[in-house]
Amino acid sequence: MLLFDIAARHAKKTSSNPAQSLNTATHNGFLLSFEGSEGCGKSTQIRLLAEHLKAAGQAVEVMREPGGTAIGEEVRHLLQHAKAGHVMTHEAELLLFAASRAQLVREKVRPLLEAGVLVILDRFLDSTTVYQGMARGLPLASVQAINAFAVGGTLPHLTVLLDLETDTAWQRIHATGRELDRMESQPREFFEKVRQGYLELARAEPGRIAVVDAGRAPELIHAEILKLVETRRHAF
Ligand SMILES: Nc1ncnc2c1ncn2[C@@H]1O[C@H](COP(=O)(O)OP(=O)(O)OP(=O)(O)O)[C@@H](O)[C@H]1O
Ligand SMILES: [Mg+2]
């Protein structure tokens, strides 16, 4: 099953407009997304990678989802910490994530890619496919259509999936001692569904999604990611 068939069709349809089709040769930027369940080490690895690339003189921007724009940060608050979030339906959750993403892509990501920047996203559309589609159980076709509408053909050149055994991720989150947000407070089974969902997605799109074993020391993971990024960037 090709999970991004709708997005791919959309990208083709809009390819005559360079502003809407950034995965063509119209720009030199590179879009890299990090995915994986809570506590798998996304923020840690993004920090290591961004530091390394910046030290090497490269233009790098890091943004997080939901968030990354003023509108997106308000949406983030609603999704993660607002009292109102306790009665949020799965459908509303899906659309809020999509709203934040639609804003981020147009306000920030596309202009940065046009300027040749390497854009690193801490979560992107795959999070929605996995969390709202596969784990929450919303119809996958609707999730894909909304995702495709939100990103309008702006897809990652490379997605790093940090894969971690669910119990290890669980321990890492709880070891931090901080208060858990709405998503982090889900039962263990939910995180197992998330992990398996991501792996299924990676099997469906091996050309874009690279699975990286996140159960190792941070420096080893960092070295592997660096190699992946360098190899893929040269392909564009
Ligand atoms: N390779 C690693 N080995 C052991 N601990 C790690 C590793 N990478 C990160 N950690 C620790 O695990 C915790 C979660 O890491 P991090 O915040 O990077 O994950 P995350 O994927 O960004 O989580 P979230 O989805 O909640 O944002 C942190 O306390 C971090 O220091
Ligand atoms: Mg993080």
Describe the structure.
With 236 residues, the protein is of the alpha/beta class. The chain has a single domain (5-13, 28-234), classed as 3-Layer(aba) Sandwich (Rossmann fold), CATH 3.40.50. Helix content is 53%, strand content 11%. It is built from nine helices and five strands, in the order αβαβααβααβααβα. It has helices at 5-13, 42-55, 70-80, 90-114, 125-135, 140-151, 166-175, 188-204, 218-234; strands spanning 30-35, 60-64, 118-122, 158-163, 209-213. Strands 2-3-1-4-5 form a five-stranded parallel beta sheet, with helices on both faces. The longest helix is centred in the middle third of the chain and has 25 residues, at 90-114. Residues 36, 38-44, 172, 176, 217-218, 221 line the site of adenosine-5'-triphosphate.
Layout: helices, strands, pairs:
Elements: H1 5-13, E1 30-35, H2 42-55, E2 60-64, H3 70-80, H4 90-114, E3 118-122, H5 125-135, H6 140-151, E4 158-163, H7 166-175, H8 188-204, E5 209-213, H9 218-234
Parallel strand pairs: 1-3, 1-4, 2-3, 4-5
The chain binds adenosine-5'-triphosphate and magnesium ion.
Structure summary:
The protein has 236 residues and is α/β, with parallel strands linked by helices. The protein contains 9 helices and 5 strands, in the order αβαβααβααβααβα.
